[in-house]
Amino acid sequence: MMRKPFALAIVLGALGVTGLMSVMAQQPAPPPSAPPNAAPAPYTPTMGDMMNTLVQPRHAKLWLAAHAENWPLAAYALVEIRQAFAAIVKAQPKFRGLPVAELVDAAMSQPIAAVDAAIKQKDAAKFAAAYDQLTQGCNACHATVDHPFVVIKAPDASAFANQDFSPRR
Questions:
Q1: What is the pTM of this model?
Q2: Is the pLDDT reported for residue 25 higher than 60?
Q3: Rounded to whole angstroms, what are the CA distances from 160 to 60, 62, 88?
């Protein structure tokens, strides 16, 4: 009587091993590993990576700072946006065969100058209009590079719960 459960366990175990081996045989072989002391492959960020990490957060922070009338922080955010675009132009001079420097210049130069002037004047109404131009420039550039589905807008709320945007007096 003890042999039947034991035999059943052996058959089920064999089927399980066979099934596992079958599944493993269908999996592609892992890529060969690099030699232990090989330098890691350099990471090259994509245009999307750079826009999402360098530009988009600064675009939002610019709005939030100006909305709070924290003009020094808004000025700083604008400098950060300029620097981000300069880094992107350097890192990826062409995107989809188009010159990134020319795209950035065409879409951003005039709106950034208008945002800068509004910040210097501490004029919330002029800032809102200039920021709208800046945002439209972003979306026009996205359309130019066949990404019209990437639509940027002024933030509804802060995604930066760990930053106080109110001005320091």
A1: 0.76
A2: no
A3: 9, 12, 23
